[in-house]
Amino acid sequence: MAQDTIAILGGTGDQGLGLALRFAKAGRRVVIGSRKSERAVEAAEQVRKQVAQAQVEGLENADAVIGAPIVILSVPFEHTAGTVKALKDKLVAGQIVVSMGVPLATAIGDGAVRTLGVWQGSCAEMVEALVPKGVHVVSAFQNVSAHRLQHLEHPVECDVLVSGPKEPRERVMALCGLVPGLRAVDGGPLANARIVEAITALLIGLNIRYNVSDGVGVRFTGLPQS
Amino acid sequence: MAQDTIAILGGTGDQGLGLALRFAKAGRRVVIGSRKSERAVEAAEQVRKQVAQAQVEGLENADAVIGAPIVILSVPFEHTAGTVKALKDKLVAGQIVVSMGVPLATAIGDGAVRTLGVWQGSCAEMVEALVPKGVHVVSAFQNVSAHRLQHLEHPVECDVLVSGPKEPRERVMALCGLVPGLRAVDGGPLANARIVEAITALLIGLNIRYNVSDGVGVRFTGLPQS
């Protein structure tokens, strides 16, 4: 698999598909993973429909991660632990797993404007506790609206807080540059995912209170060159 | 006391003093409260030095709140409960107490980039549990940089998430309009202070990582008329 491949597990969902579209449009090779290969193949077809010359294929999760330097986890929070556990013989040291999950209370039938407490502190830290040794976990993309990602003709207008160990974090920050309107912001250590994930619940509340169908985003002011 | 008076307890600290300067500049009557009246008087003097014709005075906390429709709590988190408890015979139904405290781990000697867990969920909810019946608690101003507030010649460039019951929340949102560059954003129910307070720790981390002495702010994109 090419060194610039990005695997997106749960790439059939709104946000994962949105990232797949954007990365494919930027010329990166994308592998969409799903629990069922048929659904992954369908999603890949959707990407090809919207992005001419997209390099994209759909595979079962376990196959999608093989050889991909960066694996983005875009499955609902309640499927996160199961998905990662099922990959423990597939992920290898050096791969980067990007956690974009948010422990929204929808996982237990409560609302999307509230989060659950996660024992490890955040979805990202839970993922870190589950991946094989040597696999790097980085937290990113939680606050990016699925709608905005899917509107390929518009820039996304959102900062992406990227948290985790330095070198993998920088590689994920570089990915943000592929998407017009996304700006990577150094989110520090992985534990900051606790805050970043909670911001998603806040943004969902803002969408509701302000009736914003496209999704509210976040920008930090006062950063150098901003 | 005039109906447009704003009392700022802990108005001798950087952020409280910044708000005092801004509100005084906007022509509002400001009462700075402190545990010691001398310090409050000194802070009021500082405001008068920078803002010609400021209507400002300095009083002990217990005197500062009397008759003020809006009381802003700008004391360090570790002094919040004590300050509110000491006011229980002074605050009266109908007054609005604005919690801007953040449970930074500095309260227990750890770093400002991390927060403590608060039993009630947030500093604001702890305050709500302590005020007399009929006093309204609203959460606001946590994410506003003290430095930016104090640079009177520059706009602040920060959104203020205001959370709490509807009518008091709207009155506090209206205050934001007094400060150039502040924009009030409806932050929903008071429990959202859990997220808003945590954002402050994230902003402090950004200040450090990006070496921003003026303080990073936050803006939400995609809101109507933004």
Strand order of the largest sheet of chain A: 3-2-1-4-5-6
Structural class of chain A: alpha/beta
Average pLDDT taken over every residue of chain A = 96
**Span between termini of chain A:** 36 Å
The oligomeric state is homodimer
The largest β sheet of chain A comes out as:
6 strands, parallel
The low-confidence runs of chain A, each spanning 5 or more residues with pLDDT under 50, are: none
Whole-number radius of gyration of chain A?
A: 16 Å
Largest binding interface between chains = A-B, 38 and 38 residues
Q: Number of DSSP strands of chain A?
A: 9
CA-based shape of chain A: globular
Level of helix content of chain A? Answer: 25-40%
Q: Could you spell the SSE succession of chain A in H and E letters?
A: EHEHEHEHEHEHEHEHE
Question: Can you count the helices of chain A?
Answer: 8
Beta percentage of chain A is: 15-25%
Describe this structure in words.
Two copies of one chain form a homodimer. With 226 residues, chain A is an alpha/beta fold. Chain A contains eight helices and nine strands. Chain A has helices at residues 14-25, 37-50, 61-64, 77-86, 123-130, 146-150, 166-176, 193-209; strands spanning 6-9, 30-34, 56-60, 70-73, 96-99, 136-139, 158-162, 182-186, 217-221. In chain A, the strands form two sheets. The first copy, chain A, has a six-stranded parallel beta sheet with strand order 3-2-1-4-5-6. A two-stranded parallel sheet of chain A has the order 7-8. In chain A, helix 4 packs parallel to helix 5 (123-130). The model of chain A has no long low-confidence stretch (mean pLDDT 96). Chains A and B meet through helix 8 and strand 9 of A and helix 8 and strand 9 of B.
